[in-house]
Amino acid sequence: MATFNPGNIANMSSKKRSGSSDDQWDQFAAAKKHHHSLPPPHAEDPAAALANARHEFGEHGGVNMSIEASATFTVMEPETMRRMFTGELGPDRDFFIYSRHFNPTVLNLGRLMAALEGTEAAYCTASGMSAVSSVLLQLCSSGGHVVASKTLYGGTHTLLAHFLPRACNITTSFVDIGDHEMVRREIVQGRTNVLYFESMSNPTLTVANVPELCRIAHDKGVTVVVDNTFAPMVVSPARLGADVVLHSMSKFISGGADLIAGAVCGPASLVNSMMDTHQGSLMLLGPTMNPKVAFELAGRLPHLGLRMKEHCHRAMVYATRMKKLGLKVIYPGLEEHPDHALLKSMANKEYGYGGLLCVDMETEEKANRLMNVLQNCSQFGLMAVSLGYYETLMSCSGSSTSSELTEEEKASAGISPGLVRMSIGFNGTLEQKWSQFEKALSRMQDSSSFNNKM
Ligand SMILES: Cc1ncc(COP(=O)(O)O)c(C=O)c1O
């Protein structure tokens, strides 16, 4: 089946099937294509890389790309169908078969994600979890082995700890990703397929040393897969050496808390293998992104950089002020955070240090009381899981998104029972929201049940 280079999709003519090659539109599109294929002046900056990607116009000259909503595609001659199935004609020449395989709109979003993360190619999926599971199933076979950070999103941890061993005989050794000797020790050359970690971990906000971990893994021939959901724009793992970058696009990239989506960014050979009709995990398991969702997300990527800057700016200001109030704050932007210098050395300039912070209230009961006043007394934020929304979202990780972990696993991952994870929003003014925070805190301190407990 088609082995085309999804990274080369910039060479594709969006009007190929119209027949005419010399109409005005084609000339205009060609001029834009030429303009956008100039050497990128700031390729290292993700926003600059995104802006340098080819701009896809709508079918009638719309400034936005069109949505190709069709599930199936027709051909002019029967012979073309056979040639598409042998791989001779593929999406790089605007030949599409069926939308569970490549879809033009989803492919365009993938092209933007590849530009954002600096990878050769990317393809988008129905959810972040399907991006995680499809990549692992593509890179590992039965008997395969993963070395993974013990501080991961609860769903990913459970997939690795319970589902993959039972369903696929793929086992995982969990490590402290900051202990490089341990990582080296656990990788078994010839047996381990993948080193897996999050650039900034959910929920503890520990930061992984991407260049060093890539050196260790690559020395032993192991593929490095990094989940960058918590730090788009802030960190670019592939530019630091990672082979594959994953996203739950349901979070910051969407920004609207209204879509579930994922992305796999990596080498064209990986994306192609995932689409293979005989062995491809995306093609055969079918977690396909709806083209209407791809269209939505493509319109949100251009302001991701602006949004991240404001999420990160407010998180930094609030973390500093919360610390001054005597709260136990965890935020990698604070100088006393153990990974502050590391993050500073890896981060793209001027985006900040991430849009999430944690307040450790030590017990679940205190965590719940804090979230209750923050939502119900002062409207500082909403009690909800997830992140990247314009409103602040708060959840007690141990009893929500990390509740799949045993008490022992939570303790080992550094998830205190009172850890409140906050995804800092940017609606309202910074001072308005801060006064809501202060009001809620003083309400909590005033309440008689609270006295001497904080
Ligand atoms: C770091 C991380 N990776 C992956 C996922 C899974 O993403 P989705 O909910 O889009 O399937 C999540 C979801 O919370 C997450 O936080």
From TrEMBL:
Signal peptide: none annotated. The keyword Hydrolase does not apply. Gene3D superfamilies: Aspartate Aminotransferase, domain 1, Type I PLP-dependent aspartate aminotransferase-like (Major domain). GO terms for biological process: transsulfuration. GO terms for molecular function: carbon-sulfur lyase activity; pyridoxal phosphate binding. It comes from Perilla frutescens var. hirtella (Perilla citriodora). This is Methionine gamma-lyase. Residues 1-13 have a biased composition (Polar residues).
